[in-house]
Amino acid sequence: MKKKIWIVTGSRAEYGLLKPLIKRIKNAGRYKLEILVTGQHLATPYGLTFKEIEKDGFRISKKIKMLWPGDSELSIARSVGSGIAKFGELFSKEHPDLLIVLGDRFEIFAAATAAFIFKIPIAHLHGGEITSASMDDTFRHAITKMSILHFVSNPEYKKRVVQLGEQSQRVFSVGAIGIDSIKKAKLLSKFELQKELGFKFGEKNILVTFHPATLETDTVSSQFKELLAALDNFKNSKIIFTHPNSDVGSLEISRMIDDYVKRNSHKAKAFVSLGTVRYFSLIKSVDVVLGNSSSGIIEVPSFKKPTVNIGDRQKGRIMASSVINCKPNRSSIYGALRKALSEDFKKLSRKTKNPYGDGKTTERIIRIIGRNIDHINNTTKIFEDIQNV
Length: 389
Prior knowledge:
The chain is α/β, with parallel strands linked by helices. It has helices spanning 12-28, 50-55, 73-93, 106-117, 136-146, 155-163, 177-184, 190-197, 220-231, 250-263, 275-285, 294-298, 330-340, 343-350, 361-372; strands at residues 3-9, 31-38, 60-64, 98-102, 122-125, 149-152, 171-173, 204-209, 237-242, 268-271, 288-291, 307-310, 323-326.
């Protein structure tokens, strides 16, 4: 009988990373794959991105609606509670042999919590990383403690997962799966991209992806206001915004983006969801990626393009030489952008080495799952003290 593998996805970005693995498991023949869709995928304000999954030819097995309206702490808490309850109802009736989750979002935390309660083995991607200014940091470590297999993106992160007490023989440094997506994607040319987006590129082009730093207090609008003020200094540059995830304070950022684009329609445009191919094609076509998203740290270096990383949201992650860190004020952001757009730094970025892998992560994960799936039906774990490693 085929082993049942379920994969949970709650956002556009996470699905884009998981797509090569979903395809590989689907085509393997030895597993029965089911895709569970939740979170932002099913919410109109975030573009109903479950349609992208269907467009890629994957059948969605279950849709778990869990998001409550709003972007406050209360709405997030309600969403987590709803997610645990609804995933719990599902797991009480059906029991996969392995549940695969990625990352650190509260939607994934809810799914993992329910699976852990029902003794379903969990395989977790991207554990061991640190993002000190975001509540995602704690969600990530909590998911690690509920998981039985760990696929980390760098050897340093393996050490950290073991530091959390996980058994070293179940922690695998496989690289970042997003690099696989880049290697396999058929990207659009600049001409094709302009036609699809209805936006003409300029001499210099900036892609902005900015999310709330959810553990900081009352900084969302002030930090983003500083970012916009810095952009005003680049009169001849074209700017493309992507809207933020469903975090505390995200609605305010979206409102500010829309207001800025309305005032600067000659040089700026915003998108709720670009999809994997268009997003990666944009990175390939622009001169710099600006913001505080993990994609600027993990995926952008593979395009040999500069990243300007603002503030502390990604503080603690291993970073390539093509990443410039700056403070969340207009002068620091302006200076970092000037540096990123300079010929010297663009030359440096073209020589950078991405510390997150070589694009062969999917095959490594498939091999490891194949070796272990018959032996992980027991979710009991031994806490491994560091001195015994």
